[in-house]
Protein 1
Amino acid sequence: MGFFSRLFKGPEIDMEKSNANAKKMRALFNQVVKDGDKYRIIFGYTEDVSRFNYGFVHGSKTKIGNLIVGWNEAEQTIVVVPTVPDLSGCSEPTYYRRSEIHKAYRNKYPTDAFIIYPDRKGYIGINAYDWLDDESLYVYVSQDDELAAFTEFFKNSFATK
Amino acid sequence: MPLGEIGAILLVLIVVFILGQIWFHFVESILDKIKSFFKSNKKTPEWHTLPDDWEDKDCK
C-alpha cells in the first residue's frame, strides 16, 4: 500500500536542497547585478539543438545552458545571468529592457519557451519549469509561485504581441 | 536462426556502434580544434564564483 501510493505520487521534492539553491541563486544574482534585490528571480535554461551528419554517423546534439532569470516589473526589465547546475559561479548579466528589444513573445510549439529578440539578428529562448529532477543538467529548485509570477509578468507586461 | 548467427549479427552491430562512436568523437575533436582556433582572439566572459561567505551576506 505504502509502496504503491508512493509510486503513483511521483518523485518528492527535497525542499531543503531547493531552498538552499534558491539562496545560492540570489547570492550569485546580487553579486553581478546592480540593485539585485529589486528583481525577482527564477531558474531557466536555454536549449541549443543542432543536427550533425558525419558520413555514416548522423544525429542531433543538445546543449543546455543554465540561467538565473531576474525580472523587475516596475522597470519592465529582464536580466539573464548564465550559471551552472551546481551554482558554483556565474557569468556576466545581459539586460533586456522592453523599450530596447525588438520583440518578445511566449512560444507555443515545440516548447512554451519565453522568446526575446534583442534585435533582428539573434534571439534567446528561455525555458522555465516549476521543478526539474535532473541535477546533472539543471539547477535543483522548486519554483511554482515564482514561475507563475514570471509568466504573468512576461505575458502582461513584457511581451510585445 | 542458429545461435551462432545471432551472435555474429550482434557482434557486427557492436563493432559498427563502437566504430561510429570513435568516428563521432574524432570528427568532433577536429571541429572543436578548428572552432577554438577561430575563437582564440575573442574575449571570454568573466566568471564569478560564489564567495565562501555568501551565507553571511543578506540574501532574500
Protein 2
Amino acid sequence: MANNTVAPKSGLRRRIENFFIGLASAYRFVERFFKEVWFPPYEFKELIRQCYQIGYNSLPLISLTGFIVGVVFTNQSRPSLAEFGATSWLPALISIAVVRAMGPLVTALIAAGKVGSSIGAEIGSMKVTEQIDAMEVSATNPFKFLVVSRVLASTFMIPVLVMYTDFVALMGAFLNVNQNELVSMSTFFVQVFDAISFLDISSSLLKSLVFGFTIGIVGCYKGYNSTKGTEGVGKAANSAVVMAMFLIFIEELLALQITNFFRQL
Amino acid sequence: MQNKVIEVRGLKKSFGDLDVLKGVDLDLFEGENLVVLGKSGSGKSVLIKIMVGLLTQDEGSVKVLGQEVKQLNSKALNELRLKIGFSFQAIALYDSMTVRENLEFPLVRNVKGISKAEKDKLVEGVLESVGLIQTINQMPSELSGGQRKRIGIARTLILKPEIMLYDEPTAGLDPITCMDINQLINQVNEEYNTSSIIITHDLTCAKVTGDRMAVLLDGVFGAQGEFEEVFQHATIPSVKSFYDYNFIQ
C-alpha cells in the first residue's frame, strides 16, 4: 500500500527554507521601493518630517560620540607615534582614520541603533494596531507614505551626519593635540586636509549613502513584516538593529576593497 | 425591491490548514444595517476585510457596488475604497498625528485642490456629528476609548462613504459608552444615508443597530433574519447557546 503521509521537515531543512523565503521577501521589498520611489504622489511633507527626526534629533548623540572618538583615538595613537618621534603626524593619521573609516562607521552604527530601532518599532506598532490597514482603506499607499519617505530621509541624512561627525571628531582631536603638542588650529587643519584626497571624501560619502539606505530599508522591512502583537514589535526593533549593523560591517568591507581598487589605478 | 450594495457568493478563505470561511453567501441592501454575529475567530473580520481588498478570498465572489473586488486593479480598488468607510476594531488612529491631522489625512490625499477653508469645514462638520469638536487639537493618546472610537468613525465619514463597515464597534467599552456608540451608528446611517455591516458579538449592539442579523457559525451563516426571527425562535443549538451566553453576560 502506498504511503501518502508527508514526512515532517527536519529542523535544518525548515531553517534553510525560511532563510531563502526571507531573502526572497526582502528582495521583493527592496524591488518595490525602487519601483515606487520614482512615481507620484510624492510625500514631501513626511520626507521633511523624517529628515528632521533622523537628522536633527540624532545630533546630540552623534556630537557626543564623535567628540569622544576624536579625543580617544588621538590619545591612543600618540604613544605609538611618540616611540618614533612622529607625533607631528597625528593630524594626518587622525584625519585619514576619521574620514575614511571611523566617521562613517561610528555614525552608521549609532544611527542603526537609534534610527533603525525607532523605524522598526514605529512601523511595527502601526502594523499591529491596524494603522497601515487604515491607510490602505483610505486609498493611501502606506508603502509610499511610510517606507519610501523614511528610506529616502535616512539615505539623505546619514551622509550629512557623517560629515558632521567627521568635523566634531576632528575638533575633539584638535583640542587634544592642541593641549599636548601646542599645535594651532590652522596648522592642524592644514595637515588634516593635506592628508586626505578627493577619493577619501567621495568614497566616504558614497558609502554613507549606502549605510543610510541600509538602515532605512532594514528598519522599514522589519517593521512592515512584524507579526501580530507587542512581542512582534519588540522583535522588529531588535532585529532591525542587529541586521542593519551586520550589513553595515559587510558593506564597509566591500567599500574598502572597491576604494583600494581605485586607489591603485 | 431594494438595490444590493454588497453581494457575496460562495466565499471561501483559509489560513494554512485552518478553513475560516467555508462558503459564505450574503447580501447587503441599500440603506440597511446588517449585523454579522459570531464567536471570536469565526471569520467575521476576515469577511469585511475581503470586501475592501485587505485580504483576498480563495474562492467565491464578492461584489461591492456592482464591482468584483478581486478583479479590480489598484486604481479602481482605491476608487471603490473611497466609497467605503471602515471602522477598525483596534480603532487605528495615527498615533503621531492630532485629531485634526487624522481627519485631514484621507482628505488631502483624495480630494484634489481642496482649500484650507473647505478642509476645516469638513473636519469640523464630522467632529460635530460625533460630538467631539473640542478634541480637534488633541493627540489620540489623550482621548478615552469611547472618544477614540468616535474619532475613528468620524475619520471614515469625512469622505462621505456610501457603505460603512464596523469591526467590533463596542469591543472593550463600558455599557454606557457602548450605548453611545450604538446610537452614533444609527445616527450615521440616517445622516449620511449609508448602508452598513456591523461585525459584533454583542447582542445589545446587534439589537439596537441592526435591521437584519446573520450569525456566522463554523464558516457559514447558521441563521439570517430579524432579531426575533434569529434568536427568539432559534432552532439551531449553537445559535440558541450564543443568545443564552450573551443573555447571562
